[in-house]
Amino acid sequence: MDPETERTPFEAVTSHTSALQRRYQALLDQSTPFVLYRWVTTAVLLVLFFVRIFVAQGWYIVAYALGIYLLNLFLAFLSPKFDPVSDALDQDMEDGSAGGLPTKNDDEFKPFIRRLPEFKFWYWATRAICIGSVCTLFEVFDVPVFWPVLVMYWFILFFLTMRRQIQHMIKYRYVPFEFGKKKYTKNSS
Length: 189
Description:
Helix 3 packs antiparallel against helix 5. This protein is mostly helical and 189 residues long. 7% of the residues are buried. It has helices at residues 9-31, 35-56, 60-78, 84-94, 118-135, 147-171. This is Protein RER1. Involved in the retrieval of endoplasmic reticulum membrane proteins from the early Golgi compartment. Keywords: Membrane, Transmembrane, Transmembrane helix. The chain crosses the membrane at residues 35-55, 61-78, 145-162.
């Protein structure tokens, strides 16, 4: 054989891995337009995860960690990419004008851009649920805890962070959800 055409085992593994990564990315790209189906699948995976936790009566720390991670993803999904508070501080230091979302009526409108786009939110949430489900297969992650305290602490954390996020949304007048494109009729003026 010609020495230039021979491949080392490392090169063979690398080429096989990159082929798998391309196939995986192609599947992700094909799933992009199917928002409802993606989220239904994720919800089913989450329900199966909690059924596993309920039936096994264990792995509460894994469930708590997953809940905290999903809460952080959700907050990033609700937050604007350019936060008016930090942008205002940055702009005040530079030129004295505030940037980001409009804070006064005469400010220029800028569209809402999420810190975490919907597709990445779905991807990272689904991936975390799958990792959490795999963790429930190993006894090392089944740390004995009093689970009602974890549940109560998670709900307190959820309500406090959501209250802060809603206050931020009210203060800077933005809504992170789109309820569909406006439909104009022929007779509307």
